[in-house]
Design a protein that fits this description.
With about 775 residues, the protein is mostly helical. Among the domains are: about 255-365; about 390-590, no CATH class; about 615-785.
Length: about 775
Amino acid sequence: MKLNPQLFDAVAVFRELGWDGAEVSDVLSLPLGTSAQRARAVAGLQSGQWYQPKTDGHAYWYEGCTGVREKLLALFAVRCGVTPSRAAEVLESVDTAVIAAVVAERGADFAQDFIACCGRTRRRLWTKGLSTFGTALVFLVHDAHLPVPQDVEYLTDWSIVAARQMFRVNFEEAASHHVFPPKSTLLPRFLEHVRQAITAGVAITGPFGMVFTSATRVGRLERETAVDLAFSGLSTAIRPSERKEWAKIIVSELRCDPTEMLGRVDEIVPLVATGETTSVESFGIPLLSLVDDMVLPDLALAALYATAKKTLHRVIRALADRPVPSAAVIDALQPRLSELAQDASHKVAADLLASWGNQVEPEPKVEPAIVEWPETPPVWQLPAFHCDDVDVDKLVVLASRDFWPADVETERFFAALIRLAHTDLAATRAALRRCDIHRAQWKDFDEEFSLHDARTNALLACYHQIPCSLSTPSFVDLSITVADFAQRVREYAKAQVPVLLPDLVLALCRLRDAENASLVTIDPTVRIKPKHGMPFRATVAEVFTSFTAKPVESLPKRNPRCERFFHDDDQSFMASVSELLELESFSWCVDADHTTFPTNQTVSGYQLLWEKTTNRSLAHHALQVARSEKPFAPHVAINLLAVCRATTPEITEQCVTAALHAWQRGLIRPGATDFSCLDWAEKPSNVPSFVAALVELSPHGLLPVTWLVFDQILAYSARQPRLIPGTEQALAALEKFLPSVIAAVSTGHAPREVLTLPGLRAVANRRGTTKSTVAARRILRKVEG
């Protein structure tokens, strides 16, 4: 966001009216001037930023640029007439009673809109801490007699205030600017707020839970009302943890017994159907002995899908303790009980059916399908990078995706942008205007965190002035040959323009054959343009010669979970460049990944970090890593497979495609994986979902890879004091694909060594008779048989 050109005129009005130097407590009595003065103030304060970023090369911060106290300026802006959204944006941490009074002065409609805007901005540092304006919003609703907002953020703030003022429970130390309304203000509308909090779905696991339970204990909520509200909250809760907490309140705090629950059986059946242990044990099992045969099929069938085996057995025993039900009930429950009885661990289900006069027929055994064991593909020949001719429409399509991470599509966009600008600049500018709204940030070239940010900003600022981008790759792995580099420098010499500093640095990092530097001649006349100011004294030729004299062979090791960049203190590989340019350091850090160093195996897979949350860049990284030239190092291979775990369908599909491409290109080699590097963590996690992803990949040609990874998981697990989660799934996967591997060995498609399976043997040799060790011994007998 840029400065508003009328900002300083608004500040002048602020000073004219005597606000500069006033106290916050006096703002309601300070003058607002004439309508013309207020209009000037609003014009300058309604939009634009009041702070500008500063940096010393090591740190970034924001500094006020108005010359007055921005806290007072924000209160002035609200009183003069800025919109509610702007008020929520610019108001800062001042006495919340004053904020409430200033907002209330604008009227009820403005106050309600302001509360809604505060809820959308979510300015809360801690889950159980007040938001920036928390107490001010509570003041507003009570003092201005506003309807209770159905807004989770507001109701969370109210819960924190009520817990402190009514029940003396303090969650997080409140900031000094918060002024709390007294208990007498909160009491009259307490029940109204509780009802609205439940309707809005405020988490019972947070401060609201403490308010609700405290209110029931001291009698602030009558028991009958509390029970109704608790069941309402239980029915509308979304998260399992919230349903668990509501169930605990109903059973432990409100002491609802099964006979009282019986009248709510219609509400309870859907809860039991979730299969969650707490719902089944708190409501389903106690009611199984009380409901009649009309209700029993629905309740029992829901309870029979309990996820925990122990709970499921309790459900079956509760059914066994009832008299034999009617034939209609037996017919309704028999399919599910028969399904459970097929598993030897659910013998109680077979016993129950037998006591009802039904016998379980074993399901016919299905032979597993044989999965092909293909030959390992040869390593591919790396294709050259190319950029087809583009028109305005194609440029818009290329620009519609994010510029980070940099991949071949990003590079095609920049190459096409520069090429099109030289043939039709007006059409190129029109194309950029048609891009998404977030492309407006292109015009703000002040904030640059990484080398890729700096290059993006530089190219977007100068695309119509330069002949080409130095960092455009020569090959699809994003690497650049010294011959291409030299040719591009000649184009700059011909155009008589300097190269852009971040574009040059990225190009140097991407060089694939720096040892051939002596075979090319770099034009000695081309200079280097910094972001601001005159070109550097050092030329491109001098920088190139210095850099290639000691090419980047080793890079500092990082922990990709928290360090994905090279900062000032570990950019020693760029020291020759910064010294020649007479810079203490670069103003940006360098991305430690394959997009910057495409030929360096150390950092090749650093961006391959699977997360449960949606991460759109992950798929782009995976597809780009799969364009590498050489076979992966073990830590890269395991994490490319790891990102195939389920997230969103689109991202998962693209990551699976990347893994298949990598196999087909000879980049993933059987046995060249290291399970201990999974997710770059000290201890592997989410292993069951990892095994599930490997099982999905196996039939698509990757069985030679996944088979050995399954055994690596078992070997790692066997070395731990306790078997890790995922061991059982890895054993099941081995057993599933064992017939295919035995068949491949017998036909000579797979080497006999793949049946050595040291990990399986290590688990089988552990003491005890756990389910995993018993399964390992069973599989081992099949291997040796």
